[in-house]
Design brief:
The chain contains nine helices and 13 strands. It is α/β, with parallel strands linked by helices.
Length: about 250
């Protein structure tokens, strides 16, 4: 007997079609990419879609990317107040605040009927905290920061799996250093996800966003049911749309 996979809308017809119906409910989906690649637009679209249908959304914004004006563009001026009323916005500015916001998140899940959890910039504050601890040579602090982000990812995975609430996180990518001589030899830079194997392990779906020659592309890097594939896209006022040719 095959169990039907439950999904929520990605907030875009083209994205839904590309993802065979949208984001799966019982997993963490990670959207990774460089700055300006469209990560926040992806999670905002999903958040607006859920809020439009009356579901509560918990949105942890660690990078300051959440914009009520962008929400207004997506949903229209007549709907914006209703949509924003269904979004609980948490805005940590350091890793300690992010830790406290995860405690608030768990309380909100007990008190509210939540349809989506978003963490926009899952590794941003973690990365800054880790850099400070490493710079000062505090080995025990480095270990504790790593343990804490592991606890947070585990908590998100349990929310998705046990409560059947979809979780979307965004993350940055970076490229390994390659010398000029190696570049001339054709050696390509390797793109890595911040947080490495830890983030990859807990995220059962990974979508990487790329910018190449001014054009945007989404790559389905990891999925438990589907092979890797790509979609060229563009961002407009009302959302995300597929491009014909990349």
């Amino acid at each position: 007997m095959t169990t039907k996979v439950e999904r929520i809308s990605a907030g875009s017809y083209d994205l839904n079609k590309w993802l065979f119906g949208g984001y799966e409910r019982d997993i963490i989906t990670m959207i990774a990419g460089p700055p300006g690649s469209g990560k926040t637009n992806f999670v905002l679209l999903a958040a607006c879609s859920q809020a439009r249908h009356g579901s509560k959304v918990i949105f942890i914004d660690s990078e300051g990317g959440f914009s009520s004006e962008r929400v207004k563009q997506i949903v229209g001026a007549e709907k914006v107040d209703e949509i924003l009323g269904n979004i609980f916005l948490l805005k940590p500015t350091n890793f300690e605040e992010q830790k406290k916001d995860f405690e608030k998140l768990l309380k909100l899940l007990k008190d509210e009927q939540v349809g989506l959890v978003v963490v926009d910039g899952m590794a941003m504050l973690y990365r800054l905290e880790l850099a400070d601890a490493s710079k000062s040579g505090e080995d025990e602090k480095v270990k504790e920061v790593n343990r804490e982000v592991a606890r947070q990812m585990k908590a998100l995975a349990e929310i998705a799996r046990k409560k059947n609430i979809p979780v979307l996180i965004t993350n940055q990518v970076y490229q390994d250093f390659v010398s000029f001589e190696d570049l001339q030899k054709g050696v390509e830079r390797t793109t890595n996800i911040v947080g490495g194997d830890l983030m990859k392990y807990w995220s059962k779906c990974i979508i990487e966003l790329k910018m190449e020659k001014g054009k945007r592309k989404a790559v389905l890097l990891k999925h438990r049911s589907f092979p890797e594939k790509e979609m060229a896209f563009e961002i407009k006022d009302k959302g995300i749309f597929k491009r014909g040719i990349f």
